[in-house]
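Fold tokens
===========
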Amino acid sequence: MVDILLEENVLVPMCDNISIAADVFRPDVPGKFPAILSMSPYGKEMQRYPGGHFSSVEAGPTKYFVSHGYAHVIADSRGSAPSGGQWALSSAEEQQDGYELVEWIARQPWCNGSVAMVGGSYYAQIQFLVAATQPPHLKTIVPFNGWTDIYRDLIFHGGLLHGFFPVWLSSVYERVQAELGSMAPEKRLPPRDILGDVVARNPTDGPYYWERGVITRFDKIKVPVYHMLSTSTYNHYRSQLVGYTKLTCPQKLMIIAGSLRRAIYHEAIAAEIVRWLDYWMKDIDTGIMKEPPVTVFVQGSDEWRYESEYPLKRTEWTKLYLHSGADRPASQPPYGWLGRDLPANEPPDAYDYPESDARVEANLPVVAYCTPPATEDREHIGPASLTLYASSSVADAALIVRIDDVAPDGTFKMVSKGWLRASHREVDESRSSPGIPFHPHTKPTPLEPNRVYKFEIEIWPLCRNFKAGHQLRLRIASSDSRAIDVGNFHSVLEQPYRLTIHHSKEYPSHLLLPLIPHATPTALKPKINYTPKY
């Protein structure tokens, strides 16, 4: 085992005369090494304790990297801990700092001139932004659950303020920076009303978010990218999958499940990262580029599998129409049902908000539609959406949908969710694709009360096998639960209203699902000794 040499609080000068503080971990042996950069405002010291209680330990397995011949540099973003300057969310200054850190690392006597970036969540999204600045010595990035679209993935979901954002922002300003004590002087913390200011000044998509997300600059990323993401979390992975379809650089994709932090520190995943880094930074033919580009862990069947692309070419886009409960098969619960036949002239369903909140908090459906028990396994991998014809008694509404996997014994697991504020219903067809209706979120338009509108609601991508005997259940409500959806609840409308859901020949509300035919058996199987808990 290689001993680790640690240089703490190395101050790296930036072009605007502030310094970024970094911890440098490297093999305690002579020589020059390729280096990995991880940066965030979370506090570099806590990254040494992956088993600790902090939720922001996401820089990656330092000991594993160093033991395999890499230096690992963990930096505090400007304005956090000992670093100078003023922190601002994914700012242009922070992106420039990343550029300069890469180039500084490449010049160090212990570095061989090759630099990569690795990490999850904030440590992931900053990689895309830094890569778009094209530092000459950046060789590759390995983002894990990194948002590329800050409006749609971090701050708003479907135009609804994401409850995670204020909780997270408070954590950055108070829990993380304040716990670092004297290293984070109070005078350098932004005003406490910054959240209200950001949201009040930027309620729709626009320049503020475009500067802080790489969605408008995918063409600037030239270095190879290994996308790693988990479909069990609802904070970032959606737009990273979009990024995978937009980038033209060399890429691989791994879709995992379960905890981000557990996965990124698991030896099997760390070994996969090092295989990628060895190929691009040490010129070692690890075989990784000879393997299929996509590796997925399919929940439900709990198996790893290779695929040739994402979304899968053999996808059979399947519509399941909403039907009234009165016409449901006898095997169905006392809700509506889902089927491939177009609805007849069926009566609509309705509920009142906020009265419906009580059922949401009890994890009970407000309005639900369920398939019959499957006669065989049904696999859904890829994006999904709900076309919903509905009316509101007021000028807006919150539409929150979720998909459950219901077992024969009645127990269930949430598989995915989708959100849309009704006034943000506009869709840009030129930027849409199956399962991914693109909402510009630039010109909210109030509803005419009690008029029926068509709403296209994106449901975050699935990667699940619904086993024989199981049912797929669609739930619709106007709120989510602060108790059940911890960190993933959303702002709701203060005004009461009645939402009416229509499903008939005139209004054929339906789910669009990516049904995947059985894979062709292949002798090539991923050798990943990791079974996620989800």
